[in-house]
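FORM 7B - TANDEM STRUCTURE REPORT

SECTION 1: FIRST PROTEIN
SEQUENCE AND TOKENS:
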Amino acid sequence: MSANEPNFASVALIFGGSRGIGAAIAIRMAEAGYRVALTYVSRPDKAREVAATIASKGGEAVAIEADSSDPSAIRAAVAGTIERFGRLDVAVVNAGVLRLGTIDELSLEDLDLTLAVNVRGVFLAIQAAAAGMLEGGRVITIGSNAADHVVKGSSIYAMSKAAVATMVKAIALDLASRGITVNNIQPGPTETDMTASMVSELAAMVPIGRVGQGEEIAELVLYLAGPLSGYMTGSSLTIDGGFAL
């Protein structure tokens, strides 16, 4: 076991872990030795598939239904994780929504949902996880390079991700005395089931000529979850092939 691998009892909770980047994170953390809880909203089949993949590799995982716009569901997901595994070491806040459109196209519903999930939901997930987390725990949010690089039609999405990047800085100070680090990862265009139909178009926008893979984001999460990242907190790390430069 290397210095950056978890001990046999370590537990990670991935909010939004049933698909795309979240699923890649859940699987990679299980491969590294974490016992994993993952939340889902609309696709229980995908959540069960991720849990089954983890189990087939000798890992342990549980899928928990939890809408990240619902404060009680967020708290229940944390409580359910601790009840199942007895502890919580790492929380990865990946749940989010994407609403795009110009200022004349976006509705109040678009704005309210984006704020409820991407900002309020992130805050509440960190708050609930930190309350049940052991000393020296890790909180990792999955933001977006949209916090630093906006395009037409991205106003409320970019705003929500910029809010997360700033939120992380302040919460890192709140939790520093407990040895809990709080960091934010900002992916660029990444291949998921949601982007599968536009990979070529997205790749043409990235300086290195390709989109990212969920496994690449997961490796950065794994580093931030481990002991070798203990001196880093309040940071936002962009992983986007140079897109936001």
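SECTION 2: SECOND PROTEIN
SEQUENCE AND TOKENS:
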Amino acid sequence: MRILLAGGAGAIGRELTPALVAAGHEVWATSRSAAKGSVIAGAGGHPLVMDVYDVASIDAAFEAARPDVLLHELTDLGEYDVAANSRIRIEGTSALLDAAAGHGVERVIAQSISWVVADGDSLAEETEPLRPGIAPGAPELEQAVLAQPHGVVLRYGQFYGPGTWRSSQTPATPEALRLALAPMAEVSSFVHVADAAAATVLALGWPGGVVNVVDDEPAIAAEWMPVLAAALGAPSPEVPASLPHGRPISNALARSRGFAPRFASWREGFVSPDGGVVRSATAL
């Protein structure tokens, strides 16, 4: 397939391009900066500069790629700017989908999140709606993508691994470590970024709808925080006294469709030399 990957230089985009190429697909991957083109080209993709808020720029990307599939992996979380990320989910998604319709692209796969469904103790399946206001723009993104002739929404778990906040490259500054170790709820579900990319490649053949992409072991904060802190060479922080309960997320649907994460649990991924989280002895 010919694939237009919007967000090719981000954490998952860097994993997706080589995975897609290895699966035999042709990939045109976008970034906002020409300077990142070498990263995309080095992974086997065709780099494109695209501004998702510039209609002409988006049309030029579609004209160059002539895609069979649009993969929407755009985020704006570099500075943890919630408003900017909400804008890209709403305005950016709308602009991409308008261009896809105009260029006859019916198959769309987009990034969403799994961890903002209603709190509870039972495993959350894909029928659970996202709670409004917790992740601004995510419900609107899902609704827009699912309205496409063939729209797939991937609700990823919390990322870790190369290029994410939870990686061996996380700066050893108090603020960076705070973000890496901050629990969003008492119960969380994780996924290694390379496993998320592998699921996304599989999703090219999945029917439309929502699919959770998480590992096999939901975790409470008191369990995962010390393990991640040790991997990052940081002191183990205290678990906040008051947290939303959260919800364990089921990956049964993705598993039934062939998803087999290399790191079935964060317990393995955080401490594996191949997980991209453990700092080298020289870095500690």
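SECTION 3: OBSERVATIONS ON SECOND PROTEIN
The domain at 2-163+190-214+250-261 is CATH 3.40.50.720 (Rossmann fold).
The chain has a mean pLDDT of 94.

SECTION 4: SIGNATURE
Preparer initials: ____
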